[in-house]
Amino acid sequence: MTAIKNDEEYQKAISRYEQVQGALSNDPNHEGKINLANEISAYEDSIWDLPELTPEQSKRIMQEEFGAK
């Protein structure tokens, strides 16, 4: 797995992921899709300073934002 180092690489990874996001486990693109998702997630974690949420906090946000029950 190659780490995403900057926003340009991030945008390219997002574009590539959008192309392969429907790949199922028997598709040759499936492993690449999983690797891209992991790379994108790691990059987002490195640039965004988001607080950790408890399950209760997550549920409350889902209820408030999306009407989930």
Task: Give unreliable regions as ranges.
Answer: none
What does the main sheet amount to?
A: none
The helix/strand class is mainly alpha
Distance between the termini: 38 Å
The total of beta strands comes to 0
Q: Categorize the overall geometry.
A: extended
Number of distinct helices: 3
Question: What is the N-to-C succession of helices and strands?
Answer: HHH
Percent strand: under 5%
Helix amount? 55-70%
Any idea how many domains? 1
Mean residue pLDDT:
92
Cα gyration radius (Å): 15 Å
Description:
- This protein has one domain.
- It is built from three helices and no strands.
- Helix 1 packs antiparallel against helix 2.
Q: Which keywords apply here?
A:
mainly alpha; extended; 3 helices; 69 residues
Give a quick precis of the structure:
The chain is an all-alpha fold and 69 residues long. It has helices at residues 7-20, 30-47, 55-66.
SSE order and pairing:
Blueprint: H1 7-20, H2 30-47, H3 55-66
Helix pairs in contact: 1-2
